[in-house]
Protein 1
Amino acid sequence: MRVTTHRPRPTQAPPATAAAPVRTHDLSVVLGSSTILRGIDLTISAGETVALLGANGSGKSTLVKSLVGVVPIANGRAELFGADVTSRRVPWARVGYVPQRLTAAGGVPATALEVVSSGLLHGRRLRLRGGARARALAALDQVGLADRAHDGVHVFSGGQQQRVLIARALVREPELLILDEPLAGIDRRSKEALAGTLTDLRARGTTMLIVLHELGELAGLVQRAVVLRHGRVVHDGAPPRAAQGHDAAGHDHVHAHEDQADPGTRSPDLKVEW
Ligand SMILES: Nc1ncnc2c1ncn2[C@@H]1O[C@H](COP(=O)(O)OP(=O)(O)OP(=O)(O)O)[C@@H](O)[C@H]1O
């Protein structure tokens, strides 16, 4: 069943004066006694699709968490749509965020429609408005799960649960979508469905920041890659090509871990494996 009730997004470019969806300046994050991010300068303009890449522990999740205010900023600043993320001015209704490795079920029996509808609730709105059901169905349709709307998410596969959570972020029709490892641990069919969803969103002008371990199914979608190593940006530009043989069946995807890599002895071409 295809439900096509979502409202078309205007396609015209934002005014030249519009604040960038994401901007950081000299951003540093300290967790415990460790400096996790150092001097991050990053601007993402409206409509861009940016991959945030890097080895395990390089700071990717910490960076997106600092953008959505989940971890404190030690130095510098981060802004969403021109509003400092530590202020009350952030237009959260314009932002969708799906954290890493969160299941939709959470031990609570709920249907996919209920989980997605909850995305329309927030601090000041604890009751759903008219039209919420149609919007939730449309968001489920965007991730290819409209026909499973009334099924309990506890019976869904990991990939389907991930798609429900993405639908929960999409139901508010965010202008900025931040996804942390959306492809991790999901089956190939779900990956392809997700790639299709994100391609549609890009066509509608949604700005996307996607944390990825490797480009994989999203290689054709990503326009720009920001690569972190040891909490610093070491590349910001064209997406890298996959390492030779990385896509081959049987490749074991062994990746260097930041904690294990010794900067003094690392070979020059052991940059970040994706
Ligand atoms: N709450 C915390 N307290 C102390 N250190 C932390 C905390 N959270 C994360 N770290 C450390 O910060 C570093 C960066 O972690 P982060 O999760 O941002 O990396 P990542 O690039 O997203 O890795 P992965 O690809 O494995 O998800 C790691 O060394 C991690 O152990």
Protein 2
Amino acid sequence: MRARKRGRTPIEEAVSMIVEETKGPIETELRALADSAGYVLAGDVRAVLDQPPFTRSPLDGYALRSSDLNGAGREHPVCLPVSQYIPAGIISSGRLPEGTAARIMTGAPLPEGADCVIPQEDTDLGEHRAAFYAFIEPGRNVCFKGEDIKAGESLVFAGTRLDFTHIGILAGQGIRRVEVYKKPRVAVMATGDELLPLDKEPVPGKIYDSNGVMICARLRELGAEADLHPIKGDAPGELAAATERLLQEYPLVITTGGVSVGDRDYMPAVAEMVRARILFHGIAAKPGSPALAAVRNGRILLALSGNPFACIATLELLARPVLAKLSGESVWRQRQVRARLAGSFGKPSPARRFIRARLTGGLVSVPEKGHSSGSLKTLAGCNCLIDIPGGSGALAEGDEVKVWLF
Ligand SMILES: Nc1nc2c(c(=O)[nH]1)N[C@H]1C(S)=C(S)[C@@H](COP(=O)(O)OP(=O)(O)OC[C@H]3O[C@@H](n4cnc5c(N)ncnc54)[C@H](O)[C@@H]3O)O[C@H]1N2
Ligand code: MOO
């Protein structure tokens, strides 16, 4: 158990503090494979079948013995009787008689005795007797049983977040259901007297709660079951009661707003009122520097700053690793890459700073303006944050930067 960190905590340290306090998932469920994208596999899955399950033709053509094609060419075709017709889905009736060919379709099982397939383009397409205009070596144009997957081999490991690739592989095995971890439930609560829910008409001096809705959308994209709770005003008793309730029900509670130094920023006091142990209050980066994390009975309270860009940036930086652990993802690493700046960024960064950007083909471009942490418009189309080290001057076109992908 780590002691509360005083002062501003570097992001990496903050992340490892919260992740260390986060409990992995226990509850699993059996889900239909077709409906399991985005869930994390709870146990290793091994192949139950060879794939392909039989040796088959990858072409429409004729299956035969290569030795029967000796000397075949455009000028000297070899002619053979066609002894079988094998469409896809049908096992040939018997061994291919010596000196004959089987008409075969793509995906059909090779008849026993055949060792290659000649594409129909190199034949006269004869029905009872066919002429072959090329020589084909043994093994050519044959997909061998088990060449892709061998029964018994490990296919997908526990802790993998399933996507369409895994689902395709497992469907090829006839696996109908998979054991996955239940999605982690996350409570989201926006705080602030100025906030309006979307179902209210505009009111002078008030703004709509974009943070709550945006964070829930992102959490769902990241595989969580996110519940948006009613907005709470800046009243410590009410905030504490709501936070207390949420911490009883959810492994992760994310609030936005009221976490800085203002008279009415009550979240630090609320964390204490609900007897949560504060891990850190303040991160050594902008935006979102007032962020606070606390833990109570293994449940995490993450109080993010109210400025919309600050809250979404810190959700990526701080909450994503927590979510990965809650989900049971065994290998999770923030996807960080290096890239060259496509334009410039004029502001110096005395402290570490994260800015919105778009990475395409190794080049990362930054909106010309609209970087304030209260502004969201230019976030549209961005797919990453640029991580600018503290003490940096302005950035110039071509500079190499570190990028954290969304
Ligand atoms: N004297 C100082 N003032 C401030 C400091 C400081 O160090 N000294 N830090 C600034 C920084 S940095 C930030 S970030 C903000 C963060 O303050 P809070 O996290 O307490 O957030 P609020 O004050 O509640 O809100 C900030 C801003 O965002 C708007 N907001 C809040 N919630 C939402 C929402 N759900 N949807 C949309 N917009 C929201 C709110 O109206 C404010 O405009 O503090 C600085 N001040
Ligand atoms: O965290 Mo504030 O958004 O740094 O300006």
